[in-house]
Amino acid sequence: MSIFTSHQLIDFHDKKLADIQWPSLEAEISTVSNIWQWISENHRNNACLWAQEDLARRTKASDSEIAENKRAIDRFNQARNDATERIDELLLIALNLVDNESAKTDAPIATVHKNSKLHSETAGAMIDRMSIMALKIKAMRQQTLRTDVDETHRLSCEKKLARLIEQRLDLGGCLDELISDAQAGKRHFKVYRQFKMYNDPRLNPALVAEQY
């Protein structure tokens, strides 16, 4: 698998958001998936999560509607994290830092150069952040195009949009550097399992209590 660039990632995220029929509410992963499918799945869950976060802040919706939004947020957030971890697995395999079987475990064993430095944030986490940045940029750009607001609002949003675009480019540059350093044996990252406890009926004390 060839390693992609941040510019390819930005283009991919933005093209997905430009599709008026996207995202679907169901996962789009096939049985034979590649890293781009998991990047898409991560992005899809972030987009669905974004929409549910907006709905959950309605002040005129019923309690049951808000509860439904909150449960959807939990589902999409869990799926988003799962996709992020899968991205890290596939990247580490491509970088020859872990073998295929080890990558799937809760504690993948990394094989790294003796002088390689551990990077605290994984490449998958950075890709996840860039997905969220794409959503922010789209939403802020829409604010600059509104006709029901005054010029002050639009100018303020234009400045924020420029800053968001800068932030995404900076983050993309850091991602490119991490992958380049990983290929050169200078830096590495690991698959960090999030172990989301609130969604697990065995670990969430409130859910455990409901069983008795």
Report what the structure shows.
This protein has one domain (6-199). The protein is 62% helix and 2% strand. The protein is built from seven helices and two strands; from the N terminus they run H-H-H-H-E-H-H-E-H. The protein has helices at 6-18, 35-56, 63-94, 100-103, 123-144, 151-183, 205-210; strands spanning 117-118, 187-188. It starts with 5 loop residues before the first helix and ends with a helix. The model has no long low-confidence stretch (mean pLDDT 91).
- Total tally of structural domains: 1
Largest sheet: 2 strands, parallel
In the sheet with the most strands, the strands line up as 1-2
Q: Roughly how many Å is the radius of gyration?
A: 19 Å
User: What is the string of helix and strand elements?
Assistant: HHHHEHHEH
The tally of beta strands, per DSSP, is: 2
Task: Estimate percent helicity.
Answer: 55-70%
Low-confidence stretches: none
Structural class: mainly alpha
Structural shape: globular
Mean pLDDT: 91
Task: Give the count of helical stretches.
Answer: 7
Strand content: under 5%
Query: Whole-Å distance between the termini?
Result: 49 Å
Brief summary of the model shown:
Helix content is 62%, strand content 2%.
Name the descriptors.
212 residues; 2 strands; mainly alpha; 7 helices
Q: How are the SSEs ordered, and which strands pair?
A:
Elements lengths: L5 H13 L16 H22 L6 H32 L5 H4 L13 E2 L4 H22 L6 H33 L3 E2 L16 H6 L2
Parallel strand pairs: 1-2
